[in-house]
Amino acid sequence: MTKFTSKRKRPKIVVIGGGTGLPVILNSLHKENADITAVVTVADDGGSSGIIRDYINVVPPGDIRNVLVSLSDLPQVYKDIFQYRFESKDQFFSGHAIGNLVIAALSEMKQGDIFSSVQELSEMMKVDGHVYPAANIPLVLNARFSDGAVISGEAEITAAGKTITDVWVTTGDDSLPEARPEVIQAIMEADQIVLGPGSLFTSILPNLMISNVGQAVCETQAEVVYICNIMTQKGETERFSDADHVRVLNQHLNKKFINTVLVNTEPVPTDYMDRQKYDEYLYQVRYDFKGLRDQGCRVISDNFLLLRDHGVFHDGDKVVEELMRLIGQLPV
């Protein structure tokens, strides 16, 4: 991808999400002449992040770690050290990434102020852009299912195997959380808001369910672009079409706030995926052009597919090329 070198001001792009999809876009966006702000979910309670969260009540660090690395200008060897995960034979550190431990330590040093900790670490890691936790305290994700049951906790929600109707976030004392003013200011001043790719109910919506974040995304003058997932996800979006993803987002904020949706229409080769390695992904998301138009959004459909290591991913460079075109940084 050719870096844009126009003398026009750097466009302000806010990317909101979490999970493995967010760094894919940020890695490619980092090559562009853009002012990037990543707003990262803090409701993760699985894996290393969940263990650290349980022990010291810190915002889960895993997604923040990956985003910091994707925007860092440090030499690759330093980023590799930050990402290194201890092997299972190291019983005390088993499964923990060094970066998770560093983030947890900084947060403890600053009496739990994760926002300030991440800003300090961003300077240390020479991050080109801004990395903002969606909230300054750990959040609890709650879900209501079609049978009326309510479950709390991201890992428990996805393991339930039920149809989710809606989600919301609370703090440990069940109060309603709010994002820092810096997060809201970034959204309101943005030229483009990017949602996804990522788990619909557990990576994207937890951010939007923070009341002032959802309100800002609905009120901003920026174009809101949703990058729809390529595959349906077990325990979350089974049998979903691309229009179903957009419908759920709009319903949660009670407004058709998605302006543009990017959808992959390239077929995933039969039997390409390693179903054991990528066991949470089920089938390719069904394309429903009419359903998308009914949601009032512009539809950009193309081949955004990247096949790698018997897994299915978005081609970050192709997606970002389209984002740059939408914002007027590349010829139409």
Q: How is the secondary structure organized here?
A:
Elements (H helix, E strand, L loop, with lengths): L11 E6 L3 H9 L5 E6 L6 H10 L5 H9 L5 H8 L14 H12 L4 H11 L5 E4 L6 E6 L4 E3 L1 H6 L4 E7 L10 H9 L2 E4 L4 H9 L2 H9 L3 E5 L3 E3 L8 H11 L7 E5 L16 E4 L4 H6 L3 E5 L2 E4 L2 E4 L1 H11 L6
Helix pairs in contact: 1-3, 1-13, 2-5, 5-6, 8-10
Tags for this model:
about 325 residues, alpha/beta, Rossmann fold, 2 domains, 7-stranded parallel β-sheet, 3-stranded antiparallel β-sheet, 13 helices, about 20% strand, globular, cytoplasm
Describe what this molecule looks like in 3D.
With about 325 residues, the chain is of the alpha/beta class. It folds into two domains: about 1-40 and about 170-330, CofD-like domains (Rossmann fold, 3-Layer(aba) Sandwich); about 45-130, no CATH class. Helix content is about 35%, strand content about 20%. The protein has helices at about 20-30, 45-55, 60-70, 75-85, 100-110, 115-125, 155-160, 180-190, 200-210, 210-220, 240-250, 290-295, 315-325, and strands at about 10-15, 35-40, 130-135, 140-145, 150, 165-170, 190-195, 225, 230-235, 260-265, 280-285, 300, 305-310, 310-315. It has a seven-stranded parallel β-sheet with strand order 3-2-1-7-8-10-12, sandwiched between helices. Strands 5-4-6 form a three-stranded antiparallel β-sheet. A hairpin with a 4-residue loop joins strand 4 and strand 5. Helix 1 (about 20-30) runs parallel beside helix 3 (about 60-70).
